[in-house]
Amino acid sequence: MVQPGPGNVKKTDEEWRALLTPEQYRVTREHGTERPFTGPFLDNKKIGTYKCVCCGRPLFRSDTKFDSGCGWPSYFAPIDEHAIAEYVDRSHFMVRTEIRCADCDAHLGHVFPDGPPPTGLRYCLNGTAMTFEED
After folding, report:
1. Which domains does the chain have, with CATH numbers?
2. Which of 14-28, 79-93, 94-108 shows the lowest per-residue confidence on average (mean pLDDT)?
3. Cis bond leading into 118, ω under 30°?
4. Residues catalogued as catalytic
5. Exposed, middle or buried by CB within 10 Å (0-12, 13-18, 19+), for 115?
6. What's the mean pLDDT in 94-119?
7. Residue range 31-59, pLDDT digits in tens
8. Cβ atoms of 42 and 73 closer than 8 Å
9. Binding site residues, as ranges?
10. What is the spatial order of strands in the sheet that 65-66 belongs to?
11. Helix (H) or strand (E) holding 17
């Protein structure tokens, strides 16, 4: 498990609210979840980089994206081992591994041990927590 980093991007609650849409704020700052099959990037097939919507940190490359059928964009590996931080999430009567942006602490989604090779991991992301930059 990658341990949380110090985070380089710090903003007040008011600054985050001014920067983000209400849905982006709810997902990233309040640890919300978008409804399955409704978020952006689920069906995106373009080549490029997925970045944190809050701070722009590169998170995932399109060549690690796969269709998991779960209703959210899924990836088998982050862009590098320092891009995300992992936390134990005991909400909703389960124990899961939450993933956040290592730079700004934005809630991104969760990681599960049921992904494809080569990692066997499924990073399940809220599309509203990301932007996409095409190559």
Report:
1. 13-36+47-134 (2.170.150.20)
2. 79-93
3. yes
4. 124
5. buried
6. 93
7. 999 999 999 999 999 999 999 999 999 99
8. yes
9. 52, 55, 101, 104
10. 65-66, 74-75, 122-125, 107-112, 96-101, 84-89
11. helix 13-19
Which positions make up the binding site for Zn(2+)? Answer: 52, 55, 101, 104
CA dist., res. 113 & res. 119, Å (int):
9
Please measure the distance between the N-terminal and C-terminal CA atoms of the chain and give it in whole angstroms.
Answer: 30
**pLDDT given at position 103:** 93
Number of helices and strands (H, E) in the chain? 2, 9
DSSP H or E segment with residue 23: helix 22-29
Position 95 scores a pLDDT of: 80
pLDDT at 80 over 90: yes
